[in-house]
């Protein structure tokens, strides 16, 4: 097993100083996901001699509970990390990865592993096989500047993990590609497959999964996947990237294609890295694209409803969010959901035109909410690499800022933006990490309005900010110097968003009689549930609840707490 240089068990913790953060050396391509208990799971690929994928868990205080990173597939010759997703139970994680088995018949597979907060591998050491392919040893030949021929062996990869999402019914859906290579090693076929897996590791969609579309075009690329919140998933993919020809497909919980065998198609512009997408919570999907009409550049947003039909724009061709001179070259486009009917779209310009992040609000009716886009931060500084997540009914954004903070530039700043475009934290923004040349790599919600932040500058750095904009302070501690009131319960809602049921997990078994109540956003009481002494969780049946956002209140002693629950059907 890889032995990374890490702080010993129980010693690492979040920093409240913007000049410090938890350091994570030796691991690359890191992914984050919440554990739904206030902590965070990480996985990444270790650049060491064994070329393996490892996982790490930090609790809500930033304390590491494992002595070392855990190898997700100890028996494999080589693994490459690709995606992670939360399971049906808080504190359990599923990792999807590509694995090589070297030998007489070398194979490359897509496999899954489930890990809990105790660091135990819950599925076999070899992982759960999703697809298995044999690969042939090939030789790459080239001639150097002196005219001498060289050759080196390599195994061309045949499978790749594209994404993994929860099915909101206890399992996950994973998307992956299978490629075909000719004798020269050139890819002539690349199809996208999907598989649904239960919490126990049962394959629902056949032994080999199902192709998401049936098409004459044999090479599909740039696939993304989101949950449809009803046991299935929605996929976005490029049919012909050069001309901006794209498609979307929805597969239900039974593995049936809902948007015809060929999916719903649309045409956008260029720059494959600029296409953001998100489920609409109603069985449809919202996606974006860049268009170049007559020497200009514009961002369009498209909506496909639950039947796979486009329905935004005069001709169902999307709505225009911004139109600017071609020099703008908008990039880093992202979309997040901020309420049941509202989404925030963010993007940034370049050194030549508007070198700062911009945000616009869109409604489910396909209407732009604000008269003009707003900036995440004011001032004359250059700002790049904006990234955001949902934070209750707001958007939490981070970016790289060129302002000079104590002699350091290119530090990481953050701000929370409300539904009316107002700043909800201090006007000067919050400094997350004051180090030169930092870059935000990944942002993950803690499901309480705060976020885990993974940053990079030669090594990885991890930091936490709560819903009140406080660095390194879990929400259960109101003041850093005060002890936690044992009469006050803190809790997590899982899953969130939810579909049929949701469970409220208490941070510790209840010690006194308390009450859980559910209200709609107009303040009307919908339902109450008592929480008895020594009770550690409460399950809520949501079958009679319509889609929307609700407030979960817990009262104990003289304290009250509330969190949002999103119901999507």
Structure, described:
The chain is mainly beta and 569 residues long. Among the domains are: 284-368; 491-567, Immunoglobulin-like (Sandwich), CATH 2.60.40.3080. The chain is 0% helix and 50% strand. The chain has no helices and 41 strands. The strands form eleven sheets. A four-stranded antiparallel beta sheet has the order 1-34-33-32, with no helix packed on it. It has a four-stranded antiparallel beta sheet with strand order 2-3-4-5, with no helix packed on it. Strand 24 (331-339) and strand 25 form a beta hairpin. The protein is globular, with a radius of gyration of 24 Å.
Supply the key terms.
569 residues; mainly beta; Immunoglobulin-like; 4-stranded antiparallel beta sheet; 41 strands; 0% helix; globular; disordered N terminus
């Amino acid at each position: 097993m890889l032995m990374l240089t890490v702080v010993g068990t129980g010693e690492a913790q979040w920093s409240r100083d913007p000049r410090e953060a938890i350091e994570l050396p030796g691991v690359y391509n890191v992914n984050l996901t919440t554990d739904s208990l206030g902590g965070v799971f990480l996985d990444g690929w270790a650049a060491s001699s064994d070329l393996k994928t490892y996982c790490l868990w930090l609790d809500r205080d930033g304390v590491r509970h494992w002595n070392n990173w855990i190898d997700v597939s100890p028996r494999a010759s080589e693994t490459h990390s690709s995606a992670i997703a939360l399971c049906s139970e808080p504190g359990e994680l599923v990792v999807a990865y590509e694995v090589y088995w070297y030998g007489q018949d070398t194979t490359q597979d897509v496999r899954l592993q489930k890990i809990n907060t105790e660091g135990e591998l819950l599925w076999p050491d070899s992982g759960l096989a999703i697809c298995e392919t044999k690969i042939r040893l090939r030789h790459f030949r080239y001639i150097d500047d002196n005219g001498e021929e060289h050759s080196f062996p390599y195994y061309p990869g045949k499978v790749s993990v594209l994404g993994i999402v929860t099915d909101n019914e206890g399992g996950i859906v994973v998307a992956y590609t299978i490629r075909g290579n000719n004798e020269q090693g050139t890819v002539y076929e690349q199809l996208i497959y999907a598989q649904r897996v239960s919490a126990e590791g049962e394959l629902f969609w056949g032994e080999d999964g199902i192709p998401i579309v049936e098409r004459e075009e044999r090479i599909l690329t740039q696939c993304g996947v989101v949950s449809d919140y009803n046991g299935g998933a929605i996929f976005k993919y490029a049919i012909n990237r050069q001309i901006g020809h794209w498609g979307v497909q929805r597969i239900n919980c039974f593995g049936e294609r809902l948007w015809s065998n060929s999916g719903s198609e649309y045409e956008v512009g260029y720059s494959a890295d600029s296409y953001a997408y998100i489920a609409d919570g109603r069985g449809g999907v919202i996606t974006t694209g860049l268009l170049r009409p007559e020497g200009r550049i514009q961002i369009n947003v498209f909506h496909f409803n639950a039947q796979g039909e486009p329905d935004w724009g005069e001709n169902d061709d999307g709505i225009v969010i911004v139109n600017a001179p071609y020099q703008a070259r908008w990039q880093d486009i992202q979309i997040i959901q901020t309420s049941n009917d509202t989404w925030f779209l963010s993007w940034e310009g370049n050194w030549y035109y508007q070198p700062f992040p911009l945000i616009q609000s869109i409604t489910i009716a396909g209407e732009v909410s604000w008269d003009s886009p707003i900036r995440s931060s004011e001032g004359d500084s250059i700002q790049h690499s904006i990234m955001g997540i949902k934070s209750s009914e707001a958007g939490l954004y981070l970016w790289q800022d060129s302002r000079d903070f104590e002699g350091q530039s290119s530090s990481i700043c953050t701000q929370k933006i409300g539904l009316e475009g107002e700043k909800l934290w201090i006007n000067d923004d919050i400094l997350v990490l004051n180090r030169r040349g930092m870059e935000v790599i990944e942002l993950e919600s803690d499901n309480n309005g705060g976020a885990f932040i993974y940053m990079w500058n030669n090594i990885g750095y991890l930091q936490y900010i709560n819903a009140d904009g406080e660095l390194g302070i879990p929400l259960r501690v109101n003041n850093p110097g005060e002890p936690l009131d044992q009469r006050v319960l803190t809790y997590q809602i899982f899953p969130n968003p939810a579909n049929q049921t949701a469970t409220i997990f208490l941070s510790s078994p209840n010690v006194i009689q308390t009450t859980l109540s559910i209200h709609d956003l107009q303040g009307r009481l919908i339902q109450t549930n008592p929480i008895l002494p020594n009770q550690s969780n409460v399950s809520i049946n949501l079958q009679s609840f319509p889609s929307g956002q609700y407030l979960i209140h817990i009262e104990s002693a003289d304290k009250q707490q509330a969190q949002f629950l999103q119901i999507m059907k």
